[in-house]
């Protein structure tokens, strides 16, 4: 089956097009940094969830917030039929590049529309993933609504995977991300339910599943270290996450980059690489 990628605007959240103002070139560059530098940091999370669920031939998977498609690519390599939705059209363009074989531009469709456009024509989904960590980049209400809508497109009892940060004391990156909070013009933007980054709560994933009408069915923790070749790559990678967007709106970009580099300095090793150990958590929930 052909992978399907859909541009999807989550309820109550923003959506970025590649040609939206103010800086199309900047949007494309940031999406490329996400694809080339940052997205791979969560591969252990993707693989752990896929291993636990036995994702493979016969799996019909929907990725919410699929980004530039790395998680979909890994699932497709296991034999799964994959579809993806994301609010960022620049990232979706990169996902299409990854999931479309050379010389076969029609294999992957990019459709402007809602979740219904991502549904398989012949059968319902059997797995839904929302790997983008809870508390990062989307409103709680928007994510809840999207999960409920996705669950309606899945078979009864299908798995829904939710991803999130682990305990803050086991996530070295949490201290660096506080720079985003401090530089943003309104700390309230980073409160629970608003776009941006916030500290992880112990029951975040379970509470989200409950709000979306899902039934929790197990969880796990995965080591997801953030490692970069040098300081410049670390700054670019973290800026690509979107977690610093509010800070960039409120402060000169050079100042954000400077303070981010300063926060990263304790994590830079003698050879110039930057290394931050983190633990992420995932929850397996089931549709009712």
TrEMBL record:
Domain Methyltransferase, chain residue ranges per copy: 62-136
SUPFAM superfamilies referenced in this protein's UniProt entry, alphabetically: S-adenosyl-L-methionine-dependent methyltransferases
Disordered, as annotated region: 1-25
InterPro entries: Methyltransf_25, SAM-dependent_MTases_sf
Matches recorded under Pfam families: Methyltransf_25 (PF13649)
Name assigned to this protein: Methyltransferase domain-containing protein
Gene source species: Streptomyces albospinus
């Amino acid at each position: 089956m052909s992978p399907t990628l859909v541009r999807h605007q989550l309820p109550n959240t923003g959506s970025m097009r590649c040609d939206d103002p103010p800086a199309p070139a900047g949007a494309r560059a940031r999406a490329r940094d996400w694809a080339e530098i940052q997205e791979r940091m969560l591969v252990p999370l993707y693989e752990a969830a896929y291993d636990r669920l036995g994702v493979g031939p016969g799996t019909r998977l929907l990725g919410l917030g699929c980004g530039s498609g790395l998680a979909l690519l890994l699932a497709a390599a296991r034999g799964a039929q994959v579809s993806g939705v994301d609010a960022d059209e620049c990232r979706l363009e990169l996902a299409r590049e990854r999931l479309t074989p050379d010389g076969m531009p029609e294999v992957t469709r990019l459709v402007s529309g809602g979740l219904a456009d991502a549904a398989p024509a012949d059968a319902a989904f059997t797995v839904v993933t929302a790997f983008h960590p809870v508390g990062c980049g989307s409103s709680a209400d928007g994510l809840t609504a999207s999960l409920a809508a996705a669950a309606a497109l899945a078979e009864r009892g299908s798995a829904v995977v939710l991803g999130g940060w682990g305990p803050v004391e086991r996530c070295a990156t949490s201290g660096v991300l506080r720079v985003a909070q401090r530089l943003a013009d309104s700390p309230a933007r980073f409160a629970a339910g608003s776009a941006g980054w916030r500290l992880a709560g112990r029951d975040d994933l379970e509470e989200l599943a409950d709000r979306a009408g899902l039934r929790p069915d197990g969880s796990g923790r995965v080591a997801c270290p953030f490692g970069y070749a040098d300081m410049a790559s670390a700054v670019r990678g973290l800026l690509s996450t979107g977690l610093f967007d509010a800070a960039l709106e409120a402060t000169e970009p050079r100042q954000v980059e400077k303070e981010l580099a300063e926060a990263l300095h304790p994590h830079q090793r003698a050879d110039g690489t930057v290394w931050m150990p983190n633990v992420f958590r995932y929850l397996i929930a089931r549709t009712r």
